[in-house]
């Protein structure tokens, strides 16, 4: 009798880093290098905050109707102004959104069972949450705080106060689970070279017996 071959499953490459660190750019680069998919937790939250969703309704109930647009979707800019200056409010928001985000991401990954390759799982609080258990490796994208501030105020049009509030609300990215660190304080070309080098090394490590 021939033993059944275990069902193939993709490797999960966790990707995390602070706001304006460039982790979404790294995720896109990894897809260009051959990753099956880039699952971005922030985009999942965008979907969950659309009009008519239970998550949007719960956020409106907790933080007031002023954080909702006329169509019932969440005004993320206004909500951010409330929660990033108040750790308790931020914790409440995470309690409302994180379980739903985990459910969507787990479902997306399960849909890829039987596939071989790499799925990039991109989340700011990856190291602090349950999704970390899914990851076969974890990369952190770092950048100098001065660069973060400049990107937020120049590229995203934030006030310095709002930008600093978001930077100071970041979790720690120091963890024994981290397998690689990418410094994205320099040029896009330098970032691309670093990502390609790490990607090739990661694939070799996973292919080793």
Commentary on this structure:
The protein is 48% helix and 12% strand. It is globular, with a radius of gyration of 18 Å. The model is unreliable at 1-6 (pLDDT under 50). The chain has a single domain, classed as P-loop containing nucleotide triphosphate hydrolases (Rossmann fold, 3-Layer(aba) Sandwich). Helix 1 crosses helix 8. With 209 residues, the protein is of the alpha/beta class.
- Name the helicity range: 40-55%
Can you count the beta strands? 5
Secondary structure class reads alpha/beta
Uncertain segments are 1-6
Q: What is the CATH topology?
A: Rossmann fold
Q: Largest sheet, if any? A: 5 strands, parallel
Q: What is the total domain count?
A: 1
CATH architecture descriptor name: 3-Layer(aba) Sandwich
Mean pLDDT: 91
* SS strand fraction: 5-15%
Q: Can you say what the CATH homologous superfamily is? A: P-loop containing nucleotide triphosphate hydrolases
Task: Give, in order, the helices and strands.
Answer: EHEHHHHEEHHEH
Determine Rg (CA atoms, Å): 18 Å
Distance between the termini: 25 Å
The tally of helices reads: 8
Quaternary structure type? single chain
What order do the strands of the largest sheet run in, or round the barrel if closed? 2-3-1-4-5
Specify the overall morphology.
Answer: globular
Q: What's the CATH class, please?
A: Alpha Beta
């Amino acid at each position: 009798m021939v033993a059944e071959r275990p069902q193939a499953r993709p490797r999960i490459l966790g990707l995390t880093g602070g706001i304006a660190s460039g982790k979404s750019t790294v995720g896109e680069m990894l897809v260009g290098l051959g990753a099956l998919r880039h699952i971005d937790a922030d985009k999942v939250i965008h979907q969950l905050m659309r009009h008519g969703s239970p998550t949007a309704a719960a956020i409106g109930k907790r933080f007031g109707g002023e954080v909702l647009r006329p169509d019932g979707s969440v005004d993320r800019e206004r909500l951010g102004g409330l929660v990033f200056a108040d750790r308790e409010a931020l914790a409440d928001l995470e309690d409302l959104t994180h379980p739903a985000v985990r459910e969507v991401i787990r479902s997306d990954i399960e849909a890829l069972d039987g596939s071989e390759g790499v799925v990039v799982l991109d989340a700011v609080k990856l190291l602090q949450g349950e999704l970390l258990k899914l990851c076969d490796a974890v990369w952190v994208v770092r950048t100098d705080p001065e660069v973060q501030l400049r990107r937020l105020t120049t590229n995203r049009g934030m006030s310095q106060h709002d930008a600093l509030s978001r930077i100071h609300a970041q979790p720690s990215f120091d963890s024994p689970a981290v397998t690689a660190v990418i410094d994205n304080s320099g040029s896009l070309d330098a970032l691309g070279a670093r990502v390609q080098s790490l990607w090739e090394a990661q694939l070799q490590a996973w292919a080793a017996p």
